[in-house]
Specification:
- The chain is of the alpha/beta class and 404 residues long.
- It has 2 domains: 152 residues, Lyase, Ornithine Decarboxylase, Chain A, domain 1; 219 residues, Alpha-Beta Barrel (TIM Barrel).
- Helices cover 25% and strands 25% of the residues.
- The strands form 5 sheets. The protein has a 9-stranded mixed beta sheet with strand order 15-18-21-20-19-22-14-5-23. Strands 6, 7, 8, 9, 10, 11, 12 and 13 form an 8-stranded parallel beta sheet that branches.
- Helix 6 links the parallel strand 9 and strand 10.
Length: 404
């Protein structure tokens, strides 16, 4: 098949540059022994943790299968890499994405389970999506016409999902119109309804109303002889809060990565999820700053007494939350060190009045080793939302391990 200009094979970047330094001290700078070290941040993923979490989430939902939401490049952790891991789980019914080219990238890398495109698609990628058997969502009358036009141009049957807006208000067919559109789809021999879904809001009372609307609609489908395919509603929050939202499958995102939507949720003790990733970065500078010195454009951190400061080559432009400077820690060796400044490209860490940390040592900014640096621990320390701890830049290299 001729490749479109926007098609590509998503490759994990693992070729981190190695730099060799000699052991010596220049001024107040410490350098490590002669050894290779990385000059960029990277992310490590655990296969065992992801497979454990898929199993635990299914248990939470009473054994229901899981549609894994890997939107926004799996929150920056690598949608293709995570999909390839989850493709091996018996608890995973399929993947859900919002960008068309991500589904093509997953297929190109061998992901075999169903892939649901919950968003729109570019016409130039339409045939590739059909060829790769990506399920296309019908979320409006206009999107239906787009899919019908595509069906007329291909000799393949197109799998579609009916996306119903039960009250979220941003995507989906208004629930009052869903049955009519579903009937139109069912009459088209080139379209096959394989899924019906909606998205729930967070307030419990309104989510319960949405569930009732969804069930009324799918009952109408049945009365009209319209298939629903696999029915799913529950994102991570509702999965923990509303058993009636389970339907035939659940559709979590953040839970898959070992993070609950909020800190200290009751289910966290009953269903032990594992943190699936580490965000790591090398120490690239170690300097002793003097009392009165400051760090950053805004002079955010002022040195009260002489102290050693380490610099890491990762910042908010890479997806590391700038709120880290308000109370977070990083792990270097076996010791936690406070973050004192985060800018676009760098993070500064206080090492105290004395240190053995050297350039080339590796810092873990997020990971499972200490409660303070887990995504939930980080969120609690900086008083931020758990979702904000997973938002990393796509270009950060990924390394996959069997287990941590």
């Amino acid at each position: 098949m001729k490749q479109d200009r926007r098609q590509f094979i998503y490759r994990s970047l693992t070729g981190l540059a190695a730099i060799t330094v000699s052991p010596h001290v220049i001024g107040h700078s410490l350098f490590s022994k002669t050894e290779p070290y990385f000059s960029k941040p990277w992310i490590e993923l655990s296969k065992a943790a992801y497979l454990n979490n898929a199993s635990q989430i299914s248990k939470m939902a009473g054994g229901k299968p899981v549609v894994a939401v890997l939107k926004n490049n799996a929150y920056g952790l690598g949608d293709v890499q995570v999909a390839k891991i989850l493709d091996n789980s018996p608890h995973i019914a399929g993947m859900a994405i919002v960008k068309d080219d991500r589904g093509i990238a997953m297929r190109n890398e061998g992901v075999s389970k169903p892939i649901l495109l919950m968003g729109d698609f570019d016409s130039e990628l339409a045939n590739a999506l059909v060829d790769k058997e990506i399920t296309l969502s019908v979320f409006s009358q206009a999107s239906l016409q787009k899919v019908i036009t595509l069906a007329m141009e291909t000799n393949k049957q197109i799998e579609v999902a009916i996306y119903v807006d039960t009250g979220l208000g941003r995507m989906g067919i208004p629930y009052q119109e869903a049955t009519g559109i579903a009937q139109e789809i069912a009459k088209n021999g080139k379209l096959s309804i394989t899924q019906t879904f909606s998205t729930l809001t967070t307030p419990k009372d309104f989510a319960e109303l949405q569930i009732q609307r969804f069930e009324n609609i799918t009952n109408e489908f049945k009365e009209k002889g319209v298939p629903t395919g696999l029915k799913h509603l529950a994102p991570s929050y509702s999965l923990l809060d509303l058993p009636e939202s389970y339907q035939e499958a659940v559709r979590p995102g953040i839970l898959l990565h070992g993070t609950f939507p909020e800190a200290k949720m009751e289910a966290s003790s009953q269903f032990p999820l594992e943190v699936t990733y580490r965000l790591k970065a090398p120490v690239i500078r170690v300097e002793k700053l003097r009392a009165g010195d400051t760090i950053g454009f805004s002079r955010f951190y002022k040195i009260e007494k002489d102290e050693w400061i380490a610099t890491l080559p990762v910042g908010w432009a890479d997806g590391y939350n700038s709120g880290a400077e308000n109370g977070a820690f990083v792990l270097i060796g076996d010791k936690l060190h406070p973050v004192v400044n985060v800018n676009a490209s760098h993070t500064n860490v206080s090492l105290g009045a004395k240190t053995t940390v050297k350039v080339g040592d590796v810092a873990t900014l997020i990971g499972p080793e200490k409660s303070e640096i887990t995504p939930e621990g980080f969120a609690e320390l900086v008083e931020g939302h758990n979702y904000l701890q997973i938002n990393y830049k796509e270009s950060i290299p990924k390394k996959i391990y069997e287990t941590f």
